[in-house]
Amino acid sequence: MTGSQASIARTAPPIRIPLVRPDLPSAESLRPAISRIFETGMVTKGACLREFEEAAATVIGCRHAIAVSSCTVGLTLVLRSLARLRRDVASCRTAACALPRHVSDGLNPQCTEVIVPSFIFLAAPAAIAWAGLKPVFVEVSASNYTASVAAVEAAITERTAAIMACHTFGCPCDLDALQHVADRAGVPLVVDAAHGLGSRRGGRQVGAEGLAQVFSLSPTKLVVAGEGGLVATSCDCLADLIRMGREYGNDGRYGCSLPGTNGRMPELSAILGRASLSRLDQVAARRSAAAEAYLTTLAGIPGLGFQQIPAGATTSWKDFTIGVDAAAFGMSRDGLQRELASSGIETRAYYSPPCHRMEAFRDFLPSGTQLPVTDRLADTLLALPMGVHVTPAVAHEIGDRIRALCPMIRGV
Predict the structure, then answer these.
(1) What does the angle CA 270 – CA 274 – CA 278 come to, to the nearest 5 degrees?
(2) pLDDT in tens, 354-397
(3) Phi-psi region of 169 (alpha: psi -120 to 50; beta: other; left: phi over 0)
(4) Within 13 Å of residue 84, how many CA atoms lie on the same side as its CB?
(5) What does the pLDDT read at residue 108?
(6) 183-220 as b/e, with b when 16 or more CB fall inside 10 Å?
(7) Which residue from 307, 362, 17, 13 is spatially nearest to 173, judged by alpha carbons?
(8) Is residue 69 pLDDT above 60, yes or no?
(9) 190 - beta bridge partners?
(10) pLDDT confidence of residue 109
(11) Which of 63, 242, 290, 398 is 20 to 30 Å apart from 329, CA to CA?
């Protein structure tokens, strides 16, 4: 830390309202299962993991929910499995396999590209790169911030290996339209569903659509395992590959039929994850109440915009963001963030910079390609506090503070 940074750290006001605080089950509710672990010595690959996976598959509505060490690992394993799935598609045991049988034999073996929005957490393109594939960045919808179906369709070429979409901030992406595009192109649809537990379409939890949807269980999510992820799929072949892949690729006979990694979830995380999963509805309801309080308090403030949730969909409100139009509000997003910080209110600029402007991924955007909606969102969105600590009263307090800071209202 430099001298100036240390000075800022010393003078910064204490955080009264942090950006996030996990909504956890009680320690007492976990104690019996944890005690059994210590009695049996089974700290990994045990009954708690199986029970968590079975419960998750029931909630999501899919055939398989495979717990892994992180959402990133889950996405990587899914993408690494695509080539094997193409080879084995004819022998798949389920109708929900990776690729339509009528196009599987004609796939270009040089399919190396994955279409993905740039307005997404950096783990998504990182997983694509770690899987040995190339991200192709596309635009998002200006209203709901999820992948633009038209942009995805326009980006498909003979090199496309998969489409990756995302439930951005918990808002379900247009899975029906994206699946239609994927089916016409003969490529699988994979969803970064990191924010998706608690999100619904037509009253049903998202996760059963597409080849696979991969959920995160990190502390900012509605279901928490400490760290971890869930790969949801109804394809038996893919489920087998993910289970082998998280176990180094071990086929059970100390052989290795595909290169894997150590992507296992320990029993302690599975215990926390299952207990947290059982509370999903009440955690989602609390977030929804906080979001409604934000929307009510912030309504009518000039220059503020909000994510539009499609009809028939319900967001998890993993994040509640506001868009700040500097000219209409009278202050930039960054200026508002500084003012809120001075009041002890922590916020975050998502996703700023977007992936195509990050050093690790900027070479993947073709020269001359512009993503104006993505760039605007990255430069204007601000995530407000959300979590167990944000009651409607706290949301009203934050909203009132933003209203008091608006230069256009104050007449400054």
Answers:
(1) 170
(2) 999 999 999 998 888 899 999 999 999 999 999 999 999 999 99
(3) left
(4) 19
(5) 59
(6) eebbbbbbbbbbbbbbbbbeeebbbbbbbbbbbbbbeb
(7) 307
(8) yes
(9) 164, 212
(10) 64
(11) 290
Distance CA 163, CA 116 (A): 6
E strand spans, 19-146 = 20-21, 64-68, 113-117, 134-138
User: What pLDDT sits at residue 254?
Assistant: 86
150-187 pLDDT tens trace = 999 999 999 999 999 999 999 999 999 999 999 999 99
Residue 216 to residue 227: CA distance in whole angstroms: 8
Q: Which two tokens stand for residue 1?
A: 């830390």
User: And the tokens for 292?
Assistant: 């409604």
Q: Tokens in use for 406?
A: 């608006």
Q: pLDDT at position 91, please?
A: 56
Whether the pLDDT of residue 3 is over 60: the answer is: no
Q: Which residue has the tokens 């005690």?
A: 35
The alpha-helical segments, DSSP class H, found in 299-382 are: 326-329, 333-342, 372-380
Q: Which of 350, 348, 321, 324 is nearest to 405 (CA)?
A: 324
Distances (CA, A) of 192 to 74, 120, 361, 399: 10, 9, 18, 30
Query: Is residue 111 scored above 60 in pLDDT?
Result: yes
Q: Is the peptide bond before 353 cis (omega within 30 degrees of 0)?
A: yes
Length of the chain counted residue by residue: 412
pTM across the whole model:
0.93
3-state secondary structure (DSSP) of residue 343 = coil
